[in-house]
């Protein structure tokens, strides 16, 4: 799961996935800002097939989590807690 988050972040931030440490890489220190965060979250939700109604609440949860814990692992944990991607490696 965190690897998928890292891949999407790399695309949005225009960096290599290897440059993002899933445990310590800070989305905002890597050059991210709120609009890019929403773009990344939208891609994550689309990748996991989150429906339109569910995505409204989950988008807010993911954004809040990103401000509290701006790491790829933090985003992955939030998705898993919401019931998405638990079987991902």
From TrEMBL:
Carrier domain sequence ranges:
1-83
Q: Which InterPro entries match?
A: ACP-like_sf, PP-bd_ACP
Under Pfam families, the record lists: PP-binding (PF00550)
Q: What is this protein called?
A: Putative nonribosomal peptide synthetase
Q: What organism is listed for this UniProt entry?
A: Streptomyces netropsis (Streptoverticillium netropsis)
Q: Which gene encodes it?
A: pya22
């Amino acid at each position: 799961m965190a690897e998928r988050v890292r891949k999407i972040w790399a695309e949005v931030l225009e960096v290599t996935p290897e440059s993002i440490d899933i445990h310590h890489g800070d989305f905002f220190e890597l050059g991210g800002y709120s609009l890019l965060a929403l773009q990344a979250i939208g891609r994550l939700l689309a990748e996991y097939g989150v429906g339109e109604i569910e995505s409204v609440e989950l988008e807010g949860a993911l954004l809040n989590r990103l401000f509290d814990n701006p790491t790829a692992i933090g985003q992955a944990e939030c998705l898993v807690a919401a019931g998405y991607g638990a079987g991902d490696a």
